[in-house]
Amino acid sequence: MLHLIMLILPALIPSWRFFKDVAPSPRIKARIDGSEWREVQRRDERITVQLSSKHLFFNPNWNADLFLVSLSERLIATPNQERKARFDNALRAHLGLDKATHLEWRLSLVDYHSGRIVQEVVFESADPMPAAA
Amino acid sequence: MSLDNALRWTECLLAFALLLQSIEHLARPRASVETLLFGLRLGLCALAMPGIAGPWAIWGLWLTSIMLLWRYDGPYNGGADRMGLLVLTMVSVALAWPAHAGLAMGYLAVQVTLSYFVSGWVKLRNPNWRDGTALANVFRFSAYPVSDDLRALAHRPGLLFCAGWAVILLEVFFPLAILHRNLLALALGATATFHFVNAVVFGLNRFFWVWLSGYPALFWLQERLSLLY
Hints:
Chain A has 133 residues and is of the alpha+beta class. Chain A has helices at residues 2-12, 49-57, 60-77, 81-95; strands at 25-32, 38-39, 103-113, 116-124. The chains are: A alpha+beta (133), B mainly alpha (229).
């Protein structure tokens, strides 16, 4: 019950601190059955007016991508077994995979230092995790 | 705008925003419990928009929002879901206790105002936002730009400096718009344009529709406050 209240309260008394800082940004790579590693969040090279207009009303894949980014941020902030399983399930659903498929994933953080983009792997699916508190 | 009108407009706009979200969820691979929840929400939105089921459709949407918050262990879509739940809660309260509807809509109007003011204030206090670096980083490496060619905007410091300051000034001075109806209409036109650009450039379409649903409360509050001076 306390957990549920803690989930609802930020909506009723929001902090509204959008983009206070631009924090390092998560990237997700996955490989299925030992194949090549691939970036999960794919974006178009360029976007057209027609596509933008459509996406204003209907953009399910992009919002699903953003949900994975949120889950990876939560996992990086507070790593535990439950969050890892939740991320793994969401990624499988995103990729349309069942439980039997061998899926490996990596989370990395992208940042900008001294005039260049740097990327560091912070989690892998094989990493052990503490149990949820 | 009367309180009843503001409430009805808020219900309609919010139900439309949640309808679009439900269609998006139902278009993707999902678990059967999600099919049930989003199918139910789709039906409730269809009832809430014309006001067919009275308050029950709104209360049903509130309940399913809580179930989804639990299922996803937090919001599915960050600030958009939080604003959606805030609007839904205030409309639910207003419909449950009509004598306190004004308080609920007033609280909603204050929170919409704060959503702009606070996010402008935290940017104003951050030197990276003031010199344009923060916005350049959003384009350079954040997860948000919807296409690769948009990342090139990170190399347009002059443009980003101006755009960053335009956003900061709009957000910080937004509360002043409550002083006059025309000023409020102008400010809400500017903020709606801001959300529209965010939807096009960063794919934040859900923010656009959900924030619009908070605007009738502001028009109502402005009219109430104008009676005081």
